[in-house]
Amino acid sequence: MKEADIRPAELFEKYLELSAADALTYFSSAKREPLPCPACASRDIRPAFVKHGFGYVLCGSCYTLYQSPRPSPADFARFYQESPSARYWACTFFPAVAEARQVHLIRPKVQELAQLCQQDQFSPRVFADIGAGAGFFLEEWRRNFPETQTIALEPNPDLADQCRSKGLTVMECFLEEAESLKGQADLVTAFEVIEHVHDPLTFCASLGKLLKPGGRVLLTGLTVDGFDLQVLWEKSNSISPPHHINFMSIKGFESLLCRAGFNNIRIFTPGKLDVDIVRNAAAARAEALAGQGFVQMLLRRGEETLEAFQQFLNEHQLSSHCWVWASKSP
Ligand SMILES: [Zn+2]
Fold it and tell me: Residue 321 contacts by C-beta under 8 Å, 6 or more apart in sequence?
């Protein structure tokens, strides 16, 4: 898999342009509050950079990178409901790459999640996917494990309709509103949601409330400890405010899940794209790797070295694509 398979450059560039414009349209007059670290709650904070008018800071304790001072939840809700970049993502970008993502991402992810369950001798009877989008993951899970009762939690009406058209059980609401699901689920997943949420601790605690004791959670998302984020830093396309506002470190994810009432926390970085993302960024803008002699030299090496390097990143929690697997504390 290459970055271009799941993020075709032309479509992605348009999305980034719209996001940058929305950052001004929706937030230029927003009130902003400084936040302690959303992962570990530390107040030892260092400024990192400003991008599209959004400040980012680094936690001095767990090294999580996050957006602060932060506009209000109401400002973000309006942005997600009506902004051109959010609509472009749901209606143009995502449909264009849906099939490629099904092949390259979703099918392998279903197998990897099934393996995690098997290793824990854990067979979920009730499985809720939070922010289920168009329901591709649950559809694929059901194809493999038809005996599981699957529930798609999706607040966006268009996406909720797409889930229904696949025959999925849908709760069209936000996580905090899912009263009837409390204490009912064996397994809860949230794919690529954590980097968007305003209050990650409340979000994770709400995930826990849906679970039966001993239930499992899987969060996937971006970690700032990953190679492409560390190398590209504020030039990374993944740092695209107002969309991505939390980049937990590995240590930050551990603190966050522990504070939210989870134990047996295991973190993997199975990402495959770090090296390709850095190479593409350098090809688009030579200055993206200014002063990074080692990385420039690395990229001149052959494919075999680069593949081995990517493998090393995966095995040592150094890729930016991260999986967090944990149990609800009894
Ligand atoms: Zn922290």
Answer: 220, 221, 222, 223, 226, 269, 270, 271, 272, 273, 274
**Residues 234, 59, 296, 268: is their CA dihedral positive or negative?**
negative
- State in Å: Cα 324 to ligand 1 middle: 17
The hierarchical CATH code for the domain 3-328 is 3.40.50.150
CA of 62 to the centre of ligand 1 (A): 4
- Whether pLDDT at 316 is above 90: yes
pLDDT tens sequence across 8-58: 888 999 999 999 999 999 999 999 999 999 999 999 999 999 999 999 999
- What is the separation of C-alpha 167 from the centre of its chain, rounded to a whole number of angstroms? 26
What's the chain's length in residues?
330
Phi and psi for 36 in degrees, rounded to 5? -70, 175
**Token pair recorded at residue 123:** 């067979």
Non-local (6+) Cβ contacts of 101 within 8 A are 6, 136
| Extents of the domains making up the chain | 3-328
Q: Is the whole model's pTM more than 0.85, yes or no?
A: yes
Q: What is the pLDDT of residues 185-214, one digit of tens each?
A: 999 999 999 999 999 999 999 999 999 999
**C-alpha of residue 33 to centroid of ligand 1, in Å:** 17
196-213 residues labelled b (16+ CB within 10 A) or e (exposed):
bbbebbebbbbbbbbbee
- Alpha carbon of 66 to ligand 1 centroid (Å): 9
